[in-house]
Every structure is written in structure tokens, then in C-alpha cells.
Amino acid sequence: MGEPVLIPEPSVPVGVASSSRWARFIGVGLLGFLVQLTALWLLTTRAHWGWLAATLVAVELAVVHNFLWHARWTWRDRPGETLVRFARFQIANGLVSIAGNAVLMMLLTGGLGWPPIPANSCAVVVMTAVNFVAADRWVFARSRRRRIT
């Protein structure tokens, strides 16, 4: 037996693979949003935490929930180092979402005078698309080559 041969991984047309992955991404995100709202409600009403601390913990719980489901379901066909992916997901999904939402809210509400709810809804839609691309291309990136032994 010799060394394993590395061959380029075949590319799948974006529309074919991405449509079901996009649906799973949205489903996981909706569940994560329910986790976030439930945690926020429990922490503020039952544990009597302040809204800011409760929000931070609730958002982090949703991010962890989403990562676990995405790793095991949405991108299960793409193996990789879990801790590296988790760190990337924290950056891509957590920090980028917060920053992106803040910028879009400043633009839409502060600059254009949109009411906060429609502006935030628009920001969430835009950031969902950004998060999907970041997860697909960076967090759970497809291996460029695969081993044949």
C-alpha cells in the first residue's frame, strides 16, 4: 500500500445542494430563536435577572444550540475540527450578527427614519443570508481535496 491519493472534491451546483441546506439552516435558526426567547423569559421572569445579562446569556445559548445542530445536521456531510469550527461560528454568527444588525439599524432607523420593528426585521433577513454564506464558506467549509486510500 502506498500513500493515499488526494483528488479534488467534485463541486455540486449551488442551487442543488444549497436549497435543502438553506431550509435546514432556517429551521435551525427558528429553533434557536425559540431557545433564545425561552431563555430570556426564564432568566428575566423566574430568575429575576436584569434584561441585559439575560439577553447576553440567551443569545449565547441560541448560538451554541445553532452550532450543535448545524454541525450535526445542516453541514453533517462536511467533517472538520469541532473547536475550530465553534470558534469560527462564534465570530461569524455571534459577533458579525451583532455588528451587522447594529450597522443596519443605524442606517435604516437612524438614517432613513424607518420604524424599529420593520428595520430590525430587514436587518435579521440580511444577516441571516450573511450568516449562511459565512457558515457555508468558512465555518463548515468544504474540503478542497479528499483522500482516497
Q: What is the 3D shape?
A: globular
Give the SSE string. EHHHHE
On the 0 to 100 scale, the average pLDDT is: 84
Count of domain modules:
1
What structural keywords apply?
single chain; 149 residues; mainly alpha; two-stranded antiparallel sheet; 74% helix; 5% strand
Would you give an account of this structure?
With 149 residues, the protein is mainly alpha-helical. It has one domain (5-148). The protein contains four helices and two strands; from the N terminus they run βααααβ. It has a two-stranded antiparallel ribbon. α2 crosses α3 and α3 (82-111) runs antiparallel to α4.
Map the helices and strands.
Layout: E1 5-8, H1 14-46, H2 51-74, H3 82-111, H4 116-139, E2 145-148
Antiparallel strand pairs: 1-2
Short description:
It is built from four helices and two strands; from the N terminus they run βααααβ.
